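cache lookup: miss for this entity combination. No prior model stored, computing from scratch. Input as submitted by user K.M.:
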Amino acid sequence: MNVEISTPGTELVQRLTATPHGARQARRLTGSTLAAWGHPYDGELNHTAQLLVAELAANAVTHGRVPGRDFELRLILLRERDTLRIEVSDARKDRALRFLDGRPEDEHGRGLVIVQVLASLWGVSERDVGKTVWVELSLSPRQRPPRSGTPRPCPRTPAPEG
Ligand SMILES: Nc1ncnc2c1ncn2[C@@H]1O[C@H](COP(=O)(O)OP(=O)(O)OP(=O)(O)O)[C@@H](O)[C@H]1O
Ligand SMILES: [Mg+2]
C-alpha cells in the first residue's frame, strides 16, 4: 500500500480496494495517521475517528461499490478550524444514503445512526465519479458530542432514496 501524504502532517489521501480488507486497511490507516499527527491510539479522537471510518468504509465497499473501482479515504487536519475532516469517496452515484427503519431486532441500519451521533457535522457531496461522504470532528474533546444520547438532527441530512 503506497500512502500519499499531500502535505505532511495535515492531509492523507489513500485509494483502497473496495473489499472488506480495504475497509479494514482504512480503519488501521486512520489510527496510525492520527497517532503520527499527535492523537494517540488510546485517545478518544483516535477511537472515534476509527469508528467513523470503519462505518463509512464498510458502506463504501458494500453499498457504494462499483466492480473494478477503488474507494478513497482522505483525512484532513484543519487546525485553524480545530477540526478533523474525514472523507470516504466511492464510485456509485445512483444510490442515496438513507436511515433505515430501526427495529430492535434488525441486524443492519446502525452505521449512519452512529455517524450522526458521533460527528459534529456530516453530509454527502457529489463528485465527478460517485460521491463523497464526509464527517467533521472537533479536535477539542469538550466540543464533541457525548458518546451516548439521542441522535441530533444532521445539518445536511442526505436525501431519501428514490
Ligand atoms: N456509500 C453508500 N452508497 C450507497 N448507499 C449507501 C451508502 N452508505 C449507506 N447507504 C445506504 O444507506 C443505508 C443505511 O446505511 P447504514 O450504514 O445506516 O446501514 P447498513 O450499512 O445497511 O447496515 P450496518 O451499517 O448497520 O451494517 C444502507 O442500507 C444503504 O442503502
Ligand atoms: Mg453501514
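stored under new cache key. The mean pLDDT is 85.
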